[in-house]
Amino acid sequence: MKSRLIASIVLGTAVVLTATGCNMLAPQATTIQYNPGDGMSVNTGSVQVLNALVISDDGVDGNLVVAFYNKDEVNDATILIEYGENGIGGEAALEIPAGTLVSLGGDEEGPLLLEGIDTEPGARLPMYFQSGDGEGQLVLVPVLDGSLPYYADLVP
Hints:
Strand 4 (77-83) and strand 5 (90-96) form a beta hairpin. Helices cover 15% and strands 38% of the residues. It is elongated, with a radius of gyration of 24 Å. It has two helices and nine strands.
């Protein structure tokens, strides 16, 4: 009788450890940060650059589709954008009002035209984002074509 009790406890312990033991060895997937969309995200200064991607059919000119969020509730921010190898492609600057989200390529504002990107769809375009005194961030932004229905209207 005693051996049956001990065997039951050992078996129960084995089942519990087998069923939950992987959590001790594997990282918890919900703690891993990733970009949930097609684009890339980065922080610079008080501005968050969210889901940046470029839409182009010919690889010559492209539309930047991105959202910028200014985390500073008091001060406006300027985001500087350079694109192409070593910034040779071009540059742009946008004002982001304090505490607001500006979405380029959404319903309210159109995308930003980038001329001379010289990057074919399927490749990545080097882009440099910098805001205020924050450290600038170099990001390889994906260039996509308009073959997907939700990108078709965003092709330049």
